[in-house]
Amino acid sequence: MADLIWLHDEALRASHPVLSPVSSQLPAVFIWDNAYLDAMHTGFKRRVFIYEALAELPVEIIRGDTLAVLTDLAGDGVLRTASSGNPQLRALIATLRQSMEVIEIDDDPLVRLSASPDLKRFFRYWNKARKSAMQPHGGTPDLFS
Q1: In this predicted model, what pLDDT tens digit does every residue of 21-71 receive, in sequence order?
Q2: 4 vs 111, more confident
């Protein structure tokens, strides 16, 4: 059994930190789990989008039950995946943690605010967040210049 990257539907881009150069030596898989997609009420157009995004990534698509496939592939190895707030994915990750080591890798935030935002109204938040959200890397200095 080997270390593995599990790419799920909330990390469908090549620049996601879970697919960093450090992890590029590991095999990456996406589990096409129809039961999960149905539970998430994923429509046809979203499924097409997911498939097209996966076609451009260095990932193997495997059809089956997510828990069964990942347990079989990773065994007692280390599973790396993108962290998520999705309750369905949180439950899957918690179940996987019972049988293997799971490392969750956080995504880069869209916006970095210096103070807690007022979330009672979206536009109050957006007026503060817009300045940094429209800059490369969420307001952090451009890392590629």
Answers
A1: 666 788 999 999 999 999 999 999 999 999 999 999 999 999 999 999 999
A2: 4
Instruction: Find, among 65, 62, 10, the residue nearest to 36 by Cα.
Output: 65
Tell me how far apart the alpha carbons of residues 82 and 105 are, in angstroms, rounded to a whole number: 5
- 110 by Cβ neighbours in 10 Å (0-12 / 13-18 / 19+) ranks as exposed
Cα gap 7→16, rounded to integer Å? 10
Residue pair 111/139 in contact by the 8 Å Cβ criterion: yes
What is the C-alpha to C-alpha distance for residues 36 and 60, in angstroms, rounded to an integer? 18
- Whole-angstrom Cα distance, residue 85 to residue 94? 12
pTM above threshold 0.85: no
Q: Position 68: which residue type?
A: A
Residues 120 and 71 in one domain: no
- For the chain, the first-to-last Cα distance in angstroms comes to 41
Tokens describing residue 66: 């997510």
- Looking at the structure, do residues 9 and 57 belong to the same domain, yes or no? yes
Q: Are residues 73 and 119 in the same domain?
A: no
